[in-house]
Specification:
mainly beta; 2 helices; flat
Amino acid sequence: MKRAGALAFGFALLASFTSLAFPAQAYEIQELDDKSIIGDFVIGPAKAEVVVEPGTQKTLNIIVTNRMGDERVFNLSVEDFTGSRNAEEPVVLLGDERGPYSLKDYLSFAEKSFVLKHGQRATIPVTISIPVDSEPGGRYGSVLVTTTSKPAEGETVGATTGGATIVSRIGALFFVRIPGVVAEDGELQSFTVASDKKFFLDGPVPFHLLYENNGSVYLNPYGEITIKNMLGETVGGLKVEPWFAMPDSLRLREVSWDRDFLLGRYTAEAKINRGYGDIIDEASVTFWVVPIKLVLSVFVGLLLLLLIIRFIGSRFEFRRK
C-alpha cells in the first residue's frame, strides 16, 4: 500500500510538472509544411479591429509561429497603448501604466505561457469582454508575445564569457469600438514631397501625408493621389490605403510614385477621406524631375552634331548650279 501511494504521488507530481511545462495544450498547435529556419517568430494579425456592445464579449484569434530553429517558451501579456504627437511614432506602449482609453482589463486568454517547437504555430483565442456600463468610444490594448533566447552551450548568463539572454517581443494591436455617440474630429494637415524637395533626378518620388486626430476615437483616413504633367494630363496615380490615427495624435503616412520615364514639371493632387462623414480633404504639391544623365546625353549629342556640321562646312564648298 505504501508503494502504491508513493507511485500515485509520483504520477500526480509528474502530471503537475507536465502541465506547468507544456500549457500550450490549451491552444491549437499545428505543424508547418515549411520548416525553414529564419531565426525569428511571427504573430498575426498585427492589427485587429472589432465592435463590441456593452455587456457582451467577442473572441479573436492571433497566430504565433516559431521559426527560431529550436523549441521556445512563449509568454503572453497585455499593455495599453496610446497615440503620439510625434508623427513618425504610430503608437506608444505604456507598460504597467493605464492609457486614457484602457483595454487592459478587458482582454483575456486561457494561458499566459506556452511551448512551441520549431516549425509549429499556435492559435491563441483572445477574448474581449466589455462591461455593461461602458461608455461609447474606443479602447486600445496590445497582446504582447515574448520569448527569451538561450545562452550558447557552456556559457552562463551574465558571465564574462559573454553569455546573455535576448528577449524578443512582438505585439498585436487591438482596436475596440463601443457603439454610440462619439467625438470624431480629424483632418489632413499637410501634403508634401518628402524633405520638401522640389527637384529630382529620377524616381521614385516620395510623398508625406500628415493627419491629425483631435477626436476621442481612432480614425482610418484613406484616399488617392493623382499625378498630372505640365500640360494638365493625368500621367499616374496612387491608392492610399487606410492608415490608423489614434485620438489626440499626429500620424505620418509615406507613399511613393514612380514610372519608367520622368521629365518635367508635375503636380500631385491628394484627396483624402477623413475616415468619417465622407468628408474629403484636398491638397496639392508640385515638383520637377530632370534626369541629368539624359539631359547631358542630349546636350553632348547636339554639341557633336553642331561640330560635325561646322567641320563639313569648313572643308567643303557648296555651289549652286
